[in-house]
Amino acid sequence: MSLDGRTLTGGWRRGHAVVRDLDITVPRGRVVGVAGPSGCGKSTLVRMLALLHQPWAGHVAVDGATTPRVRFSAPAPLRRRLGVVFQQPRAAADPRLTLDDLVVEPLRAAGERDAGVLGARADELAERVGLTAELRGRRPHEVSDGQLQRACLARALAPGPAYLLCDEMTATLDASTTAALVSVIGAEVERGLGVLTVSHDEPLLAAWADEVLRPWAGQSA
Ligand SMILES: Nc1ncnc2c1ncn2[C@@H]1O[C@H](COP(=O)(O)OP(=O)(O)OP(=O)(O)O)[C@@H](O)[C@H]1O
User: Fold this and answer.
1) Number of CB atoms found within 10 A of residue 56's CB
2) Fewer C-beta within 10 Å: the chain N or C terminus?
3) Which residues are in the ABC transporter domain (predicted)?
């Protein structure tokens, strides 16, 4: 079982592909690192694999299931198998929601209405990522980047994804928060989560990933 990108090609500007003919496999229970300099196309690759950006050529397969559709047009059961954590938690989080609401919003969006079920899931996820009861009632502007990124990780894990895509997830975090989040994800990997983590932080990738790919090595970005 794996998340696969096959001969992926795409970008944002016509005639200027930043991802070219790329094959990538993220197996369940493994951490695959992708390294590359700023601006080379790492986020674009993550967005393609997360079914958020349409490849110009090639395809993405989630445990063998492919879809030509992206964003909200992609089948919901397929999207729910993919969790994403972005670089900037403040840009990713709705400022009107408390951290608890942020975490369980994907479950509400999937149709869960039972307050008991949502509350129990919020408790379990908060415990897992290390959010205190006091923090859980605050809004994004009332917490630090690290605390907000913990909530964004809990949110990404809430639907029980098979794969987690981390786009420079720790770029704005201090070393102890980075270590804490990597450890939370490590426990999920033990349970079979497949992880793709992109970063320009080579020491982090060397310590965290089972393998590190450098698809842009030798290319000018
Ligand atoms: N929404 C967009 N519209 C137009 N161009 C974009 C968009 N997003 C990215 N690009 C361009 O595509 C190229 C690759 O960007 P991408 O964000 O994938 O790189 P990256 O390797 O993740 O960079 P960084 O490490 O700095 O985050 C860049 O030249 C960027 O300017």
Assistant:
1) 14
2) C
3) 3-221
Pocket test for ligand 1, best of 16, 42, 47 (most atoms within 8 A of CB): 42
Report yes or no: 172 and 89 within 8 Å, Cβ to Cβ. yes
Q: How many CB atoms neighbour CB 186 within 10 A?
A: 13
Q: Which of 45, 46, 51 is nearest to 22 (CA)?
A: 45
pLDDT digits over 151-208, tens only?
999 999 999 999 999 999 998 899 999 999 999 999 999 999 999 999 988 999 999 9
Angle, helices 115-129/99-109, rounded to nearest 10 degrees: 130
Among protein residues, the one whose CA lies closest to atom 30 of ligand 1: 39
36 CA: nearest ligand 1 atom: 21
Residue 149 and residue 64: Cα distance in Å, rounded?
30
**What value of ipTM does the predicted structure carry?**
0.94
Q: How far apart are CA 105 and CA 151, in angstroms?
A: 11
Residue 53 near ligand 1, beta carbon < 6 Å:
no
Domain 1-81+161-221 in CATH 3.40.50.300: yes
Residue extents of the structural domains in the chain: 1-81+161-221, 87-160
Q: For residue 52, give every residue at least 6 positions away whose Cβ sits within 8 Å of its Cβ, in sequence order, or none.
A: 70, 71, 84
* Alpha-carbon Rg for the chain in angstroms: 17
- Binding site membership of 221 for ligand 1 (Cβ less than 6 Å): no
